Amino acid sequence: MPSQDTLRQHRILALFGERLLDPDYWCCNRHSAAVAVAAGLFAAWMPLPMHTLVAIGLAVQFRGYLPLAIAMVWVNNPLTLAPMFYFAYRLGARLLDTPELVFNGSLEQEALAMAIPLLTGTLLMGLSCALLGWIITRLGWRWKVQLAWKLRREKRREQ
Question: What band does 105 get if pLDDT is binned at 50, 70 and 90?
Answer without folding.
Answer: low
